Amino acid sequence: MTAMAHEPMPTHDDILLEGFLALETPTGFRAELIEGDIVVTPPTDGDHEEYLAAMNEQVVSASATAMRWYGGKGLKLPGLEPNPADHVIPDATIAPRALRLFRGASPWMASDGVAMVIEVTSTRPRNDRVAKRHGYARAGIPLYLLVDRDKSTVTLFSEPKDGDYRESHSTPFGKPVPLPAPFSFDLETSDFL
Q1: Is residue 30 included in any domain, yes or no?
Q2: Are 154 and 169 in contact (CB under 8 A)?
Q3: In this structure, how many other beta carbons lie within 10 angstroms of the beta carbon of residue 125?
Q4: What CA–CA distance (Å, rounded) separates 34 from 135?
Q5: Number of compact structural domains in the chain
Q6: Which domain of life is it from (predicted)?
Q7: Are the CB atoms for 66 and 182 separated by under 8 Å?
Q8: Using the 8-state DSSP alphabet, how is residue 29 labeled?
Q9: Cα–Cα distance between 88 and 137 in angstroms, integer?
């Protein structure tokens, strides 16, 4: 009698992940896999981009040689069981310049070495407020900055542990947001008004 080796049957999560990775979206749209759900987001509006531009200028000038700002980079984060890994595209990903973190990286890369991610709420603010926050914390990303346009606040989440951030500090638009090391400067939000 001869034993035949068989490929294991794909699970529902394997099929979901394979379908997600093969998904083609309309021009300007982006697809993310967040806690087992495929989320397709339309292009952002001008205000969304203005918030990001204002923060980019400050981060890059305040840390001219220390940090790099990346937009549109796919990150693969630990998923919640039984879901596959989350595949998210933060509005901004900031990492130490010396790591050259994205040089040669695949489209969906691990978040090791990322210092901070930034999200500006858009059509699905709950994803930014809850699901992505938990994903970034599970991945151990030290800082998560959320610009909540509906609430007119900027919230800095820090100290990730057990799937969430233990510390958060919310500031209304127009007030500075103190960013800890490795940034060590106050992020001005007066342009958000």
Answers
A1: no
A2: no
A3: 16
A4: 8
A5: 1
A6: Bacteria
A7: yes
A8: -
A9: 13
pTM: 0.85
Q: Which contiguous run of DSSP H or E holds residue 38? A: strand 37-41
Give residue 167's domain range. 44-192
- Separation between Cα atoms, residue 129 and residue 147, nearest integer Å: 10
Q: Which amino acid is residue 44, in one-letter code?
A: T
Q: How many Cβ atoms are within 10 Å of 1's Cβ, its own excluded?
A: 2
Q: With contact defined as beta carbons under 8 Å apart, do 73 and 89 qualify? A: yes
Each residue's pLDDT tens digit, 50-69? 999 999 999 988 866 699 99
CB 13 within 8 A of CB 19: no
Do the beta carbons of residue 141 and residue 111 sit within 8 Å? yes
Q: Please, are residues 164 and 137 in contact by the beta-carbon 8 Å criterion?
A: yes
Report residue 70 as tokens.
């990346």
* Domain assignment of residue 157, yes or no: yes
Residue with tokens 């021009």: 27
Please report the sign of the dihedral spanned by the C-alpha atoms of residue 94, residue 139, residue 107, residue 38.
negative
pLDDT tens for each residue of 15-55: 555 665 566 777 878 888 787 787 888 888 999 999 999 99
Residue 180 sits in a domain of what CATH number?
A: 3.90.1570.10
Any domain includes 6: no
| Distance of alpha carbon 179 from the chain centroid | 17
